[in-house]
């Protein structure tokens, strides 16, 4: 009897320990599906914007994902290279939480380095629950920059996006305090 209880306890502990691993596997599969669906939706709309997974390094309890967004014609028109987003995801028991940065996008990295003293104001947090909608929260901290003797002040902004798993419904809320040019 004691061996049976000990065996069941060990099996439950092992099963519980595998939940974060399983959530990482589910996220990786979902990411591939999202790329396919978003690109198809863009093609159907006549857009040449595309998304790709540049790399996906899945570990047992965490993953690092590099997304690339090719802006197509508009990117070429304004000499913008691809947007590269680096997502650091922690696999949990109820889903995955991640932090995404744009610091590997050359133009953004140069802007932050040259105009914002290296302090990146953009912060993206995502929650991918095992069940339910994906929630993205984008935060932009206040910053100022000077150009040709004029000071531009950008006030804080926050956007919340809720996307259903089928990519058919998107809810968005945006709160931006605005910007100003004092004087």
Helix-strand blueprint:
Layout: H1 2-44, E1 50-58, E2 62-70, H2 72-77, E3 83-91, E4 95-101, H3 106-115, E5 122-129, E6 134-140, E7 143-147, E8 150-154, E9 157-163, E10 170-176, E11 179-180
Describe this structure in words.
The chain is α+β, with helices and mostly antiparallel strands. 32% of the residues lie in helices and 41% in strands. It has three helices and eleven strands; from the N terminus they run H-E-E-H-E-E-H-E-E-E-E-E-E-E. It has helices at 2-44, 72-77, 106-115; strands at residues 50-58, 62-70, 83-91, 95-101, 122-129, 134-140, 143-147, 150-154, 157-163, 170-176, 179-180. The protein has an eight-stranded antiparallel beta sheet with strand order 1-2-3-4-5-6-9-10, covered by helices on one side. It has a three-stranded antiparallel beta sheet with strand order 7-8-11, with no helix packed on it. The longest helix is centred in the first third of the chain and has 43 residues, at 2-44.
Order of neighbouring strands in the sheet with most strands: 1-2-3-4-5-6-9-10
As a percent range, the share of helical residues equals 25-40%
Distance between the termini: 81 Å
How many helix segments?
A: 3
Low-confidence stretches: none
Give the radius of gyration.
21 Å
Strand % is 35-45%
Shape call: elongated
Name the average pLDDT.
Answer: 87
Largest sheet: 8 strands, antiparallel
- The class by helix and strand makeup works out as alpha+beta
Order of helices and strands: HEEHEEHEEEEEEE
Structure summary, number of beta strands = 11
């Amino acid at each position: 009897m004691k061996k049976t209880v000990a065996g069941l306890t060990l099996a439950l502990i092992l099963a519980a320990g595998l939940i974060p691993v399983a959530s990482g596997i589910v996220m990786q599969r979902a990411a591939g599906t999202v790329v396919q669906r978003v690109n198809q939706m863009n093609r159907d709309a006549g857009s040449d914007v595309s998304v790709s997974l540049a790399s996906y390094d899945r570990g047992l309890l965490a993953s690092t994902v590099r997304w690339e967004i090719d802006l197509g014609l508009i990117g070429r028109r304004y000499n913008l290279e691809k947007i590269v987003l680096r997502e650091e995801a922690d696999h949990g028991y109820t889903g995955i939480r991640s932090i995404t940065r744009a610091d590997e996008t050359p133009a953004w990295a140069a802007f932050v380095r040259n105009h914002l003293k290296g302090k990146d104001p953009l912060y993206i947090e995502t929650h991918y629950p095992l069940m339910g909608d994906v929630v993205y929260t984008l935060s932009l901290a206040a910053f100022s920059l000077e150009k040709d003797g004029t000071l531009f002040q950008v006030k804080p902004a926050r956007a919340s996006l809720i996307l259903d798993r089928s990519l058919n419904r998107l809810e968005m809320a945006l709160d931006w305090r605005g910007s100003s040019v004092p004087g």
